[in-house]
Design a protein that fits this description.
Strand content: 15-25%
Radius of gyration: 25 Å
Number of strands: 12
Distance between the termini: 40 Å
Helix content: 40-55%
Oligomer: single chain
Structural class: alpha/beta
Strand order of the largest sheet: 2-3-4-1-5
């Protein structure tokens, strides 16, 4: 196929790697049938990407509907096949899923690039759990590839992360049969700012702190635009109960995506406990006045859905720290829920004024630390003497003389080093502060002290860069000091976003 036809459409932002992977998959000339899996949380742009791909190659794209029963779904899929084949809707009346799938594969086989996309597959599995088994049969039958052209390319997509991940697990029918298992994430913070077209960097950071990089939020939350002012935008979107993106409504919708989340009150309470700082199963259980084992399974479910994450200490084996991975859920648990009565009386602006200190300390500050680590992983190599770093995360460094521990916001090992390896080479030590104050030499001295402690503990710090991340810049004496040192990196908001 002509490469210009397969070029990524201009309206598909970012996603270069994903587009390349998918186009390579659909244009593979192998005559045997091939299967791909695409998953990702709601509003991450899966459907948009796959619709664009299907349009580019002339594929058949069909999406399931949550509330639809088995018979209506069969007929709607039959109508989609008929329309694709140039027939009138209603011409085909296929009564079982094997016939539907076989016909879909047969009609797409007439295309130069035979592609079938089934979106939101988990909705179909609620009433038709036999579909993966039928796809396995069709896959096995079509491995000889007797046709002259490429074999069928089938992409299964869904937002219920646990359901999609289980398709290829254990003894499931499709295990070992997928060429692609693409888990579509959100845009990174720089791509997100460009996508939203936000001028002010602080506003871009604030928007990312409450919505993350999920592109699907822009169509429902772009009026008023964040350029009109963050507070005005926030109170008329996430804090407006008449909006579809009202954070309480959005959080409830997100939790309903996974069929295993049935006790919504328990899950809400767990998310609130994590948002408020409980970071281990024991502490989360204590916050809910429950035993640790009572929250173990819900935590596993939330992790598999991508709503929480467990972060390991880069240097030492200890219990992983549990944090929220979905910014809109964190915002809902910390800001919207405590202010719900005020918001629902129509006083969103007053609610925001009351909640602003919490936002700054428990949302903006931790999010700035997250972005400092993201910067280190993806962009810092252009500024570091040693180039690309290895694993990036956080750690605690013991200070026996002072009888205390120092929390390190950003630590990167050298490329090739393994987390928790003794005597590892450390590429970067960093501190990230979002407080309304410029950072000075005192912050540098703290990092130098931590570097000395790590040296004394046997780690290789000969090539370690000290990095200070500040939302509000640096004092002149620190800037002057950095100009004459190769081991000191100052990262302000402009550097974080690659401006200048």
């Amino acid at each position: 196929m002509d490469e210009s036809v397969l070029a990524k459409p201009e309206d598909v932002v970012d996603r270069d790697r994903e587009w390349g992977l998918l186009t390579e998959f659909v244009t593979d000339p192998d005559p045997a049938m091939r299967l791909g899996i695409v998953s990702g949380r709601r509003r991450h742009g899966k459907s948009y990407l796959l619709q664009a791909l299907s349009e580019r190659v002339g594929g058949l794209y069909v999406t399931a509907v949550r509330e639809e029963g088995r018979l209506p779904a069969l007929q709607r899929f039959s109508d989609a096949i008929a329309t694709y084949a140039g027939l009138r809707p209603g011409t085909l009346r296929l009564t079982d899923w094997r016939d539907v799938l076989s016909n879909a594969l047969d009609v797409t086989a007439r295309s130069q690039t035979p592609l079938l996309v089934i979106d939101e597959l988990p909705y179909l599995l609620q009433h038709s759990p036999e579909i993966p088994g039928l796809l396995q049969q069709l896959y096995d039958e079509r491995q000889r590839g007797t046709g002259a052209g490429p074999g069928a390319r089938v992409i299964l997509c869904g937002s219920a992360m646990s359901v999609m991940h289980e398709l290829l697990s254990g003894t499931k029918p499709l295990r070992g049969r997928a060429v692609i298992d693409l888990r579509l994430g959100a845009f990174d913070y720089r791509a997100s700012r460009a996508f939203w077209q936000i001028d002010d960097l602080l506003t871009a950071l604030q928007v990312h702190a409450v919505l993350g990089g999920a592109p699907g939020y822009r169509p429902v939350a772009a009026r008023p635009h964040p350029n009109d002012g963050f507070a005005s935008w926030l109170t008329r979107t996430l804090l407006d109960l008449g909006r579809a993106v009202y954070s309480r409504t959005e959080t409830e919708y997100l939790l309903r995506e996974d069929p295993r989340i049935t006790q919504h009150t328990l899950y809400y309470d767990i998310l609130t406990a994590i948002a408020q700082g409980a970071s281990t199963p024991t502490r989360i259980g204590a916050a809910l006045e429950r035993q640790r084992n009572a929250v173990t399974h819900p935590l596993d479910v939330l992790e598999s859905t991508g709503y929480i994450q467990r972060e390991q200490d880069i240097l030492r084996p200890r219990h992983p720290v549990i944090t929220l991975a979905a910014p809109v859920i964190r915002f809902n648990q910390l800001i919207t829920l405590p202010q719900a009565a005020t918001i629902e009386q129509g006083f969103a602006e007053e609610a925001w004024q009351a909640a602003a200190p919490t936002f700054n300390s428990k949302i903006l500050g931790p999010h700035f630390e997250d972005l400092a680590r993201a910067f280190t992983r993806r962009y810092a190599h252009a500024l570091l003497p040693g180039g690309l770093p290895g694993p990036v995360g956080t750690t605690e460094v013991a200070d026996p003389a002072a009888r205390t521990k120092h929390e390190v916001d950003v630590i990167a090992l050298a490329l090739g080093e393994r987390p928790q390896a003794p005597r590892a080479r450390i590429a970067l030590l960093g501190e990230a502060k979002a407080t309304v104050a410029r950072r000075g030499t005192g912050d540098l001295q703290r990092l130098e002290h931590i570097r000395t402690l790590l040296t004394d503990q046997g780690y290789d710090t000969t090539g370690t860069t000290l990095a200070l991340f500040s939302l509000y810049g640096f004092h002149p004496d620190l800037i002057e000091s950095a100009a004459g040192r190769e081991d000191l990196l100052l990262v302000d908001l402009a550097t974080l976003y690659g401006i200048g």
